[in-house]
Amino acid sequence: MMDIDIQGYMARVPEMQRFLTVDELARDLEGLAQAYPDLTRYRRVGTSRLDEPIHMLSIGDGRKDAFLFACPHPNEPIGAMMVNYFSRLLCEDDALRSALDFTWHLIPCIDPDGTRLNEAWFAGPFTPRNYARHYYRPAFHQQVEWTFPVSHKNLYFDATLPETEALMRVIDDIQPALLYSLHNAGFGGVYYYLSRPHDALYPTFHQLPEWESLTLDLGEPEVPWAVEFAPAIYKMPTVGESYDFMEQFGGDPTSSLAGASSDDYASRYGTTTLVVEMPYYDDPRSNDRSETSTLRRDAILGGIAHRREQAEFLQQQYSAVVRDLRANSPFRETTEAAVRNGMGSLEAHERWASESDETARPATVAECFSNDQMTQFYRLLSVGQFIRLLEGELGIGNGTPAIRAAMDTATETFDQWATRLEAATPANPIPIRKLVAVQFGAALATAAHLQQQS
């Protein structure tokens, strides 16, 4: 790997007290273009569903191209802060830009409409309760990252979003050597996805969290069909692999899948895709590989039971109010999708857990934590979105008895589940600068590795 002091560069990332809003990100990007007109190219590359311009800043004139885009899911703004910091550094640090020999193309927020619906928690307090209460994530068929065209067996998807089409045009135009889709997780530790094996990167990827006193996530992989390259480093899953898993274990893939990912789309150009999943909250159990007395199978089934409780709650409460709803809000779309698809993938996961030889061994502490506390955290988010759906109805004066009753029940359930989660984990909030530093360090390491390969 090239001789770049990655740890030293990470240490220079400043403290960040809050996440920047969509408007602040846009102003900063345009400001850089105005301050460095000879070094940058600022151009509009698309338009959001609500007619907001999407701009990209290109920096430098290196031989290879790297494309970084943030907020592929609008509840994931860590990457937006990384792009905001990295774009300025690239403009100011001639030596770094020259050493990497890349042309950098950066979009600080690819889903401005959805990201605005998360801004109420961007300044804290950074607790799971506050995050879940102001959280928004679109239904699968409305997610920028997972709405690229695909045709696989009985799955056919071409309902690409305007934001996705903007990404497609950029990818087709620059055919990047490196595609960095800036995601983040919610809870646990750090883990990585790569489109293909890059063995030389693994030691550095394992060091990056250590340098910021963070842990790797050594619990359950995000999906059972994930291919592990190294601990906490996985092959980027494809929609075809998701389909085949659900088909194998009796689920209906067409009911819960939408399109392909940016990695699927960019693979035609031989692009290396990188994703670094960063958590907002840390717990040392996410890194503990000590064996427990619990079978991994039982731990997974316990997590599925949490998710089933969530799905049944949403189905019951939504059916009680659906005839009274008047507003066509994003929160209604995502709740409807959760109700419609909530059970299909659970049944496939349950059958896999019950039948697979992989699950017939003692679970580690990290795996128990993934299936219990982390699942409790993620299910809280869907109830928070349902409450926001009901708030919207009440806000337009549609306070029917059914809606008011559902609001009381949902609020009570949310508080009970949040209290249970708070009792189960301290949910330590991680300083934003540490999260940005690790994502930034991964960009430097991967670019240096690809540069050395040329």
Task: Tell me what you see in this structure.
This protein is an alpha/beta fold. The chain folds into 2 domains: 6-283 and 430-453, Aminopeptidase, CATH 3.40.630.10; 292-425, no CATH class. 49% of the residues lie in helices and 15% in strands. It has helices at 6-11, 22-35, 78-92, 94-100, 112-116, 128-133, 162-174, 202-211, 239-248, 253-256, 262-266, 296-321, 330-341, 344-355, 365-395, 401-424, 432-453, and strands at 40-47, 53-59, 64-70, 102-107, 150-152, 155-157, 178-182, 187-188, 191-194, 228-230, 233-235, 272-277, 281-282, 291-295, 362-364, 428-429. The strands form 4 sheets. A 9-stranded mixed beta sheet has the order 1-2-4-3-7-12-9-11-10, with helices on both faces. Strands 8-13-16 form a 3-stranded mixed beta sheet, covered by helices on one side. α3 packs across α17 (432-453), α13 (330-341) packs across α15 (365-395) and α15 packs antiparallel against α16. It starts with 5 loop residues before the first helix and ends with a helix. The relative contact order is 0.15.
